[in-house]
Amino acid sequence: MVSWIISRLVVLVFGTLYPAYSSYKAVKSKDVKEYVKWMMYWIIFALFTTVEVFTDMFLCWLPFYYELKIAFVVWLLSPYTKGSSVLYRKFVHPTLSSKEKDIDEYICQAKDKSYDTLVHYGRKGLNVAATAAVMAATKGQGVLSDRLRSFSMQDLSSYQSDPDNSGSGTTQPAAAQQRTRTMMRSKSESYKAAS
Predict the structure, then answer these.
(1) Confidence band of 169 (pLDDT split at 50, 70, 90)
(2) Any residues with CB less than 8 A from the CB of 155 and at least 6 apart, and which?
(3) Is 29 helix (H, G, I), strand (E, B) or coil?
(4) CA 103 to chain centre
(5) Which of 46, 54, 76, 139 lies in disulfide reach of 84, CB 3.0 to 4.6 Å?
């Protein structure tokens, strides 16, 4: 575990931060030789980090694995060994030069397919959203009419079953009407509060 932490720190500081600062200095000084040196380094380092993801999963059990990674990063950076320049000129440049047209075509196809896929799924998403909105509006309208029906039916049934309404006289129907209005208002207010 300690080797892993030290390895990560060395790769971070010496493999990323120091070269980033040196690249900044090369851009600032506008020295073409330094540009080329650091561009070669970054290409090799990008390949290293890509390969590192898989080697960390499958080869981390090897003795001195993390120490070898540290040594490799130092070798890449060393002005004496010029490791990144050697790897770039002997392996990466010839390989990329011979496969450049194929890689460019693949990238172009991937861009086209990704755009088409994005448009396709975007349309599907909009259709699903529109369908959901229509369904919600339709359901909401049905719920509202059911709610209004329930108010009416409850009010009528409570009015008809009201014992005060059984006798005759002018005061009893007026009292029942008052109770019905009060009940309708309270139900209407509770419905508004719920929605």
Answers:
(1) very low
(2) 180, 183, 184
(3) helix
(4) 28
(5) 76
- Rounded Cα–Cα distance for residues 21 and 13 (Å): 11
Q: CA geometry: angle at 187 spanning 184 and 193, to 5°?
A: 140
For the CA atoms of 66, 67, 72, 78, the dihedral, rounded to the nearest 10 degrees, stands at 140
Q: Which long-range contacts (CB under 8 A, 24 or more apart) does 36-44 make?
A: 37/84, 37/85, 40/84, 40/85, 40/88, 40/89, 41/76, 41/77, 41/84, 41/85, 43/84, 43/88, 43/92, 44/76, 44/83, 44/84, 44/87, 44/88, 44/92
Query: Model pTM?
Result: 0.55
Contact at 8 Å (CB) between 72 and 14? no
Chain centroid to Cα 13, Å, comes to 29
> Rounded to whole angstroms, how far apart are CA atoms 134 and 157?
34
CB hemisphere CA count around 71 (13 angstroms): 5
- In tens, the pLDDT along 127-167 reads 888 887 777 777 766 666 666 665 555 555 555 555 554 44
Residue 191 has pLDDT above 70, yes or no: no
CB 76 within 8 A of CB 48: yes
State both tokens at 28: 């600032």
